[in-house]
Structures are given as C-alpha cells and as structure tokens.
Amino acid sequence: MPDTGTITSGGIGDAVQRKEDFRFLTGRGTYTDDINRMGQTYAVFVRSPHAHAKIRSVDTSAASQASGVVSILTGADMVADEVGSLICGWNVVDRHGEGHKAPPHPPLAHDTVKHVGDQVAVVIAETLSEAQAAAELVEVDYEVLAANVDTGSALSGPEIHPEAPSNLCYDWILGEEADVDKALANSAHVTELDIINNRLVPNPMEPRAAIGEYDMATGEYTCFSTSQNPHVLRLILCAFVLGIPETKLKVIAPDVGGGFGSKIFCYAEETTCVWASKKIGRPVKWTSTRSEAFLTDAHGRDHVSHVKLGLDANGKFTALKVETIANMGAYLSTFASSVPTYLYATLLAGQYTTPVIFCNTKAVFTNTVAVDAYRGAGRPEATFVVERIVETAARELGVDPAELRRKNFIQPDQFPYDTPVALTYDTGNYEASLDKAMGMIDYAGFPARRAKSEANGKKRGLGISAYIEACGIAPSAVVGSLGAGVGLWESAQVRFNATGSVSVFTGSHSHGQGHETAFAQLAATKLGIPFENVEVVHGDTSKVPMGMGTYGSRSLAVGGSAIDRACDKIIEKGKKVAAHLLEAAVEDIEFADGNFTVAGTDKSKAMEEIVFAAYVPHDYPEGVEPGMDETAFYDPGNFTYPAGTHIAEVEIDEATGVTEIVDWVAVDDFGNVINPMIVEGQVHGGIAQGVGQALLEGTVYDKDSGQLVTGSYMDYCMPRADDLPSFRVDMTTTACTHNPLGVKGCGEAGAIAAPAALINAITDATGAVTVEMPATPERVWRALQENN
Amino acid sequence: MPSISLTLNGRSVSGEVETKTLLVDYIRENQKLTGTHVGCDTSQCGSCVVHVDGKSVKSCTMLAVQVDGSEVTTIEGLATGEELHPMQEAFRQNHGLQCGFCTPGMVMSAVDLVAGNPDISETEIREGLEGNICRCTGYHNIVKSVQAGAKAMGG
Fold first, then answer.
1. Which ipTM score applies to this complex?
2. Is B100 touching A (CB cutoff 8 A)?
3. For A457-474, what is the mean pLDDT?
4. Contact at CB, B82 and A3, closer than 8 angstroms
5. How many Å apart are CA A425 and CA A469, to the nearest integer?
C-alpha cells in the first residue's frame, strides 16, 4: 500500500494530511474521462449555432455515410422512444398560488432550439475524431428567431416558451409589502441602490463527461458521470426521464475534478449516453470540451435588483425591500427555481435585526444556457444586496460602516432568533467576528495607510462584508413545504470488518472537499480506532445505500451527522456484546476511547474484541444479531448558519484603474472544525471565486445575436495565481446547536462574503456609489474619472 | 503514418502515430497515462503540462511527432516508486490540492519553475504559474507548496 501521509493522530480537530492526495499527486486519480470500456464508442453532439430558432429539418444522410459512424440519433428518435423531459426538482409557488412554469426540456431538441449550444443530434462513432468529423456533416435547417438574452428586459422581449407568457417563470414574494412600504415611509432615511449580480460560468477544471453502458444479459445500465450527487442523478434518470427501475441503473461518479454546483444537475448529455448505449448495444462516451462547457454547463447568479433600506434617526434598520429579476436561462435546470427564492430571499436579514423585509423575485426565461446553483447559490446574491446597501447607507449618513453594522447586529443573547424571512438562526456571535477581523487588518490604522497610498498616487479603499448563509440544507419537512421534490437527509453506513478495519459509506460525494479524510477523522474519533483503519466509500450507487449529494455546504453537517448516528448504533450494539462478554448489565457498560468498560471497574473490552466477537459469535448474547454493520439516515432539524466578517483592502492605480488587493482578512464561524487545514483551503478557494466574480469574471451574451461572447479562457477571465493575494484566515466559534457534531459547513463562505467586501473597498477607494462587477480596470478608471 | 521513438518516464517507447495527434492525446490515449489532464481547448489551463527534455510544456500545444527522440516525463514519472518527489511532498504537506485535476500540471510546472531557485519569491511563483489555472485552492496553498518544494529541492 502506498504511503498515504504521515499520520500523527487523525482525530477530530487535527490538520491531518489527506488520504486522497497520494493518488492525485502521482497521476493515479481516476476521473470519468480516464475510464474506457470494452467496445466503447464516442459521442459528439451537434449543437445549435443560434440562440433561438425553429428546426425545419435535420439531414443526417451525408454524416451517416462518414467513416466510423455507428449511429446518429436526433430529437425525433427520443420522441419515438418516449424519453422524458429533463426536470426541475423544486416547484416554486408564485404570489397567486400557482406553480412555476416549467416548459419541456427535451435532452435532444426536436422542434426549436432555445440557446446557443442546445443539443440537436448526437453522432456516435468508433473514434472521437470520426465522430467530430461526421458531426460537421449533419445539416440542420434552422428558421432563426429573435433572441432574448438580457435579464433586465427579458419580460418584454421575444417569447421563448408558449407555456410561459412574457417569459415569466414565476412572480414570487416573501414578506408583507404593505408593512415594508409603511416602515420605509416612516423611516428617517431611505437608501436606494440598483444592484446587478453578474452572471458567472462555474468552470470546475475537469470538464463534464459521461459513459453510458448497457448490459444486455442483465438488463442493467451503468452511467459513469462527473456528478456531485450520483443518487439524485439516478433518481431523475430513472423516475422522470428514461423510465428505468432504480435497480437497473448504476451511477458511478469516480474522482470528480471540482463541481461548485455545476455538477449537481441532470444534463442532456449523460441522459443521451445512457439512452443511446442500449440503442446501439455498446458503451457510449462523451467528454465535454471547455468550449462546450461554457455553452452547456449551468451558469450562476445573473440577478438585477432594486433595493431600499430604511433607517431610523439612530441608525437602526427599519425595513428592507428587494425587487429582483432572476435569469433562469432557456430551461429550468434541476434546482434552478429554488436559488433566487428560498436560498436568496430567506437570507436578506443578514446578521441584522431588520424588523420587516419584503422580497419580490420575478424569474425570467432567456435564450441563454440554464442558470442554477453555483457556489453559494442565492446566498452570495443575498449577501451582496445586504452588504452593499448597508455600506451605502453608512456612507450616505456619514457614519462608520463597521459601527452601523455593529449597531444592527443580532446579539448573542437573542438566539434562537426568528428573522422576518422565515429562518430561525440557532446561534452566532457576529460582533466577535467583526472585532477580530478589524483587529487583524488594523482598522484604526487605515486612514494612515490611505494617506500613504495617496502620497504614492494610489487610491486606497477598505471594504467590509459581514455575511451569513443557511447551510447544511436542509430539514426535509421545511424544504418540502417550500416546494422541494425530494427530502434532503443524508445516509451513512458504517461497516466494521472482522479484523477491525472500517468502511464508511456516505451519500455525500467528494469532489475536492477531502471527505475521505475528514469523514475518516470523524469515524475514527467516534469509534476510538486508528484513523488509518477507516476507509470512506462514496460515489457509487451500487455500494452506498442512498444519498442526496454534496452541495449547500451540507456534507459534514448532514452527511457527517449521519455517520455520527451510524457510529452511535455501532456503539449501542457493541455495548450489548460487551455486557455479555463482561458479565454485566448493558446499562452499566460505558464506551470511551475505543473501550467498553463496566462502570466503576477496570473490566473492559476493546472495540476490536467486540467486533471480532460479533463476526465470530462463539460466545455471544442471545437475541443480538451477529455482525457489526449499521446504517443511519439523518434529517437535520434546522439549517446551519455559518457567518463571519471578511475585510478587503485595495489599492487602485489612478492612471490605469487596476485594482490590487493589498490585504484580505477572513474571520469565519463554522462551528466545530474537524480538519482546520481543509477548512482553511475551502475558505481560500471560496474567496478566490468571489474575487473572480468581483474583479475578473464577466459572462457576455451578445444582445442581438444571443451568441456567448465569453466562450473560452481567452475571453472569460479566470482568476490566476498572479491575480490574487495570500489571505489571512482566522475563526471564531459558536457550535451549531442542533446537529450532533456542532458543525456548520464551510464550502461556500468565501464565495458568499468576498464580492461585497471587494466592491465596498473599490467604491470606498473611488468614491463611486457603485462599480459594476466585474470591476475591470476600465470600469474602475471610469468611476475614478466620474467621481474625482 | 510516421513512427516515433522517445523516452517516456525513463522507458523507451516507439510506434506509429498520426501526424495530427497531439502530445497530450498520445500520452493519454496511446500510452494510457491518464495523469496528464485536459482542462481546456485553448492552451490556457495548464492541466496537461509535462516535461520535454526537462522543460515544462503544455502537451496540448505540441504534436506527438515533435517529441521524436526526446525525453518526456509525465506526472506518473516524477515519484520514485512510492517515494514522492519533493515538490509532490510539498503539495501534500501544504494542502496544495483539492480536487486534484489541475494538480499534475501544476506540479510539473512548479518543478521546472523553481529549478535552480530555492529561494524563489511569492511574486515569482505567482507570475511563473500564470499559465496554470486552479479553481479550488485560490492558489494560496499552491504558492506555499511551491516555496516549500523549492527549498526541499535545493534549487
């Protein structure tokens, strides 16, 4: 066995090195595109070059004569086979009590195409290059229609779906508008702001890929996929799209190279590969090019909002009103409708005691690729709204923005705290995070630093973002009442082998988060066994009992809690075995540090002895099943509420408008921490994506043609090493009160906090009310010209 | 079809290859070494970096026929058995990787970048890795890893 790291302890709280790293560092990871199946064919999709068009005809005659072509399948073939529509799993009920509009989303389009990159046909050939060459020969006759890509004007643009008049998916509200309007009218001061949350392309470094395979002998399908939640993919493919029993489809998501939300969803391509594998009787493999990823991976964000914040004469917030148009893209993706509603409006209280809040979200269809959850999913948009309007109010009133926040914080003695937007925060200490962050960045010393920068011809700015998020999604009863089509529990199975090693099966898929390490730490600590003895298994629906997947910073809070519960069951069973072997009553058996002991005595048995007895039950209690293998499902009692303060400090070159991040401090409260090294890494990565959104990443669709202008790494500016600083990361801790681990989740915090911190810093430096994201040098330079 | 001969991870290999075959496809498909990854189609991301005659190269920008007679090292050839190269070890010690997809290219670039420069600065590292995109780590721990790796390699 290769050396998998220098393990000193491996318990909860240790920055233990990752079990995953040896294989990744030596090129021995197995990603979907690394897998090749016997007799495999290669799929290339024929995609629409138009944003909106009717398909008059698809002529495959020339292509089907091309070298190596095995089959060419079109939307008509899918219709003939009664392949279902791709679904949205969350039904948002609008302000009139009607469900959202979810027009059909055929995996292969058959009558119209609705965005550039929409799938029209699939060419399957012996080799990839033969499939590519033949795809060029498929002739599609289009009747081009007017494109509608702009979020703000989508409601009045050309209609995209007959099922959705005016392109309106839903018109949804949360809160009492009349109460909020009244409170605003009675406020001493009202701050208003137009806010655009720019559209982003998630861009995990591994492009999506899929292999569909059908075994004629067993009637069983296998789908290898770059999925964040293989069980949910299986559920959707089986129950809604392909009509296969779940016993006949195995989904395997092996090593997955990042996801950030974009690999949650059920896409057309894996659906097509699975379907086509039976039709042609051979495995069908598809690997996305990066260009295809830009055109077909679900994008993120894309909100246009108008926001009003009321304050009384003492600077206390009186009311918040938010009106948002959210772009859904051309079709409703798997989770899309929940993102600008339940994952957004419910977070508009932020860390504050704002007594009344109203949010109206109009979700619109456009001729762009679908928009769905991307790292943070709704919560970055909410934090950006709250932290930009609070900052702007402070500047308008001429008060210290830190002090305005402090004055409005929910106080530690107010928890559990019911917000006016449907959530109950269980715990937190917002002032502690703010104070620590201000200390780290030397807030008091900022004016002197600014003066020094000015002397060097630079503009300096400081921006605070005091964020909150609802993670660990979510209580099934709550999400069910809000329209979710599934429960959001998680499962775990903990299986001891007779000789003491443990397999932990989890439904939480890992695609960079280090579950194989953190979950092993958790189980090792709980069971009192060596870290090295624990193996974590995930990503294969035939091995793991069930799972709801990895998103919404839920793996540890929900998946980890399920492991904890399964370990509890192991310990309970172990006590029965120990009581028998130690000739004591079960109630007298105590378990600690891997030993079962008769209370008040030195009589004890180690976990390994109990496990061995369970598998070799020669002397075993009556009525107790042999074996040591327990499964638990955990459904959380509430969301978790990670929160904290990030502060960015920037220097801007007046001549060029180039922004340099000169300092970044992050103080986060994630509750208890299992592996601080992994947590810090998650914070770093999250901040980088938030900085990317704020400074670099702009997704541009041409308003006339609907073409994606920023369709490659040549045009879409991904954060590079020289775009970013090092970050100073610290923590405060209030343990979550309702899960057994006291954990909250850390994966999205950086992406949620960062954009507001940076734009607050840039507007502070430039004196502009707002600078749109991405704050490119040109935009910053223009802001400087207009405000100085 | 032309025939090529090269030394791949210390092993002599030869055979026919189509002229249009990219080096990365030759490595992944012909030689079945899947540690070298493809993350883009515009030679931007650096997931496919390998060493050709000791220098880091984006293997998507070269044709396989161009390495005829060369020594090529991929990520699979960097460690000695189960003993990691100092740069690989530094990445592990400093949590310089998360999903692992960009990692082979990042490590191969880093090994070449720091050669002869054990005291390489943070700025030099950040500028030197400009051709390798990572979406997970925010580069913070990659920079730490490369600095530690440079020291361990001793230049």
1. 0.98
2. yes
3. 95
4. yes
5. 10
Going by C-alpha positions, the residue among A758, A731, A757, A727 that lies closest to residue A746 is A731
**B91 and B126 co-located in one domain:** yes
Tell me what pLDDT residue A2 has: 40
Q: What residues in B contact A34, CB-CB < 8 Å?
A: 28, 34
Same fold? A373-473+638-787, A489-634: yes
Q: d(Cα B130, Cα B109) in Å, to the nearest integer? A: 10
What is the enclosing helix (H) or strand (E) of A685? helix A676-691
* Two tokens, residue A418: 């019911």
Write out the two tokens for B28: 């992944």
* CB–CB contact A29 B122 (8 Å): no
CB A527 within 8 A of CB A564: no
Say which CATH topology domain A33-145+207-256+263-296 has: Aldehyde Oxidoreductase; domain 3 (3.90.1170)
Q: Sign of the C-alpha dihedral, residues B46, A778, A202, A44?
A: negative
| Tokens standing for residue A612 | 């061995």
Mean pLDDT of A96-120: 97
**Domain shared by B67 and B96, yes or no:** no
CB B47 within 8 A of CB B30: no
Q: Spelled out in words, what is the top-level CATH class assigned to the domain A489-634?
A: alpha beta
B99 touches chain A (CB under 8 A): yes
Domain spans of chain A?
Answer: 33-145+207-256+263-296, 373-473+638-787, 489-634
Chain B residues whose CB is inside 8 A of the A26 CB are: 35, 75-76, 78-79, 84, 88
In one letter, which amino acid is A221?
Answer: Y
Inform me whether the C-beta atom of residue B75 falls under 8 Å from chain A C-beta atoms: yes
DSSP state of A54: E
Q: Which residues in chain B have their CB less than 8 angstroms from residue A727's CB?
A: 138, 140
Q: Which of A25, A30, A206 sits opposite B84 (nearest CB)?
A: A25
Closest-approach residue (CA) in chain A for B97: A21
Is residue A699's pLDDT more than 50? yes
Enumerate the residues of chain B whose CB falls inside 8 A of the CB of residue A8.
none
The verdict on B16 touching A (C-beta cutoff 8 Å) is no
Enclosing domain of residue B47 = 3-74
Count of beta carbons in the 10 Å neighbourhood of residue A279: 15
Beta bridge partners of A661: A650
- Residue B153 C-alpha, separation from nearest chain A C-alpha, in angstroms: 17
Of B90, B29, B15, which Cα lies nearest the Cα of B60?
B29
Residues in chain A with CB shorter than 8 Å from the CB of B88 are 25-26
Interval A236-281: pLDDT, tens: 999 999 999 999 999 999 999 999 999 999 999 999 999 999 999 9
Q: Are A662 and A725 in contact (CB under 8 A)?
A: yes
